[in-house]
Specification:
Layout: E1 21-26, H1 30-41, E2 45-51, H2 55-65, E3 68-70, H3 73-77, E4 82-85, H4 92-101, E5 105-109, H5 116-129, E6 133-136, H6 143-153, E7 157-165, H7 177-193, E8 197-205, E9 215-222, E10 227-233, E11 240-247, E12 250-255, E13 260-274, E14 277-289, H8 296-309, H9 318-337, H10 343-346
Parallel strand pairs: 1-2, 1-4, 2-3, 4-5, 5-6, 7-10
Antiparallel strand pairs: 7-11, 8-9, 9-10, 11-12, 12-13, 13-14
Bound molecules: nicotinamide-adenine-dinucleotide.
Nicotinamide-adenine-dinucleotide binds next to helix 1.
């Protein structure tokens, strides 16, 4: 099918190979500011402009990067090959659909949409218009995750543990902590486990005035036998971003904030007596894995631009993001009322009351 904006086949930007890809940013709040900054640094990219309904913020950002400001995002869309969409999650669907139907490639922030029906229609629209749809699961591009994946390739994983906690702020309170924070780890754990989820329990609480769940713990069982626990919080007095992998021969701990990985091996514990005193002794080997310090957003946006140019498929496309959203939706339901909610919508392969296949 011919690409509506570029005239290219297969949705690839095939303007003259040396011409920059023309990109715009829709929504320049917390996250959109970072997209704008990084895009302004990328080679082979022309940052055409930004759009925001907050005119003051939009003009300020446009001025800082010397690009055009568009009060209506529809006007920006007609001037670009691709957009980064960083508007509140509840607007992902309407803004994303407009961009895809205009034939523009889309990187949309996570979660792909506020519900499964909206996410499915974005995925279908991308397929129908031959446009790239990448979703901002930025942790896939975190050097700590990339190294963790490599380390775990040779290991037999028994259990995975993810913790993602933050102090309370007023941001992203249009959705629960599952869609705001846990969705990152849901995507990462699905990728690491590489097996369908067959068991799920979750509990949560509303600890702030937002009306949303802001502390949730979920336990998953995968068909492969791996078990996983995920905890996400918006009400914890310390920022934590960690995944631990308990394996047959090692324990690997990845810290996504300082891009650090520690591998513990051959731990032995024993007691010995010393002149009648019982002493406890634990020995082990700890390896520290060096990771690059590339900014994950930089890697994510470079990947997006490469996809738009036609060389690669997004590593986190609409389908993968939809899979993460399906599981997030089940966790939310379970945490809210102890059931998995609208099963036919989110878990078509449901096998029992607490058994799901995602
Ligand atoms: N990948 C990550 O790590 C990460 C981190 C933070 C936020 N996010 C995601 O980014 C998205 C935005 O979150 P945020 O924290 O930046 O929110 P925010 O409220 O700070 O920014 C959203 C911006 O969108 C603007 N906006 C609203 N409607 C618009 C419209 N119709 N057209 C143009 N602009 C419009 C708002 O004025 C605001 O400036 C959310 O989906 C969130 O989940 C992702």
């Amino acid at each position: 099918m011919q690409h509506p904006a570029t005239g290219a086949l297969n949705g690839q930007v095939q303007r003259n190979g040396v011409e920059p890809v023309r990109v715009g940013v829709i929504g320049v709040g917390n996250m959109g500011q970072h997209h704008t900054r990084v895009l302004s640094l990328l080679k082979d990219v022309e940052l055409v402009g930004v759009s925001d309904v907050n005119v003051e913020r939009g003009l300020d950002t446009a001025g800082k990067y010397r690009v055009r400001f568009f009060e209506a995002y529809q006007d920006l869309v007609s001037n670009v090959d691709a957009v980064c969409i960083a508007v509140p999650t509840l607007l992902h669907h309407s803004v994303g659909m407009h961009c895809l139907q205009a034939g523009v490639h889309v990187l949309i922030e996570k979660p792909i949409a506020a519900n499964i029906a909206e996410a499915e229609s974005l995925v279908n629209a991308a397929a129908e218009t031959n446009c790239m749809l990448q979703v901002g699961h930025i942790e896939r591009f975190n050097p700590a995750f990339q190294e963790l994946s490599k380390v775990l390739k040779g290991e037999e994983i028994l259990a995975l543990e993810a913790h993602r906690m933050s102090p309370y702020t007023n941001r992203a309170n249009d959705v629960s902590v599952v869609l705001d924070l846990m969705i990152h780890d849901i995507d990462l754990l699905l990728e690491l486990a590489g097996s369908p989820v067959t068991r799920l329990t979750a509990s949560g609480s509303r600890a702030s005035d937002s009306g949303q769940l802001d502390y949730v713990t979920a336990t998953l069982g995968f068909a492969s036998g791996i078990v996983a626990t995920l905890t996400a919080s918006k009400v914890t007095h310390r920022k934590i971003r960690q995944i631990s992998a308990h394996c047959r021969n090692s324990l690997t701990e990845a810290d996504f904030l300082n891009h650090e990985i520690l591998i513990h091996r051959k731990t032995t514990a024993n007691y010995r007596t010393d002149y009648g005193q019982v002493l406890y002794r634990q020995d082990g080997l700890i390896e520290k894995v060096h990771t690059s310090n590339i900014e994950p957003l930089h890697a994510e946006l470079e990947h997006f631009v490469a996809c738009v140019r036609g060389g690669e498929q997004p590593s986190v496309g609409g389908e993968q993001a939809l899979k993460a959203l399906r599981l997030a939706s089940l966790i939310e339901h379970m945490a809210l009322d102890g059931t998995v909610g609208q099963l036919e919508e989110s878990a078509p392969m449901l096998q029992g009351s607490s058994a799901v296949m995602v």
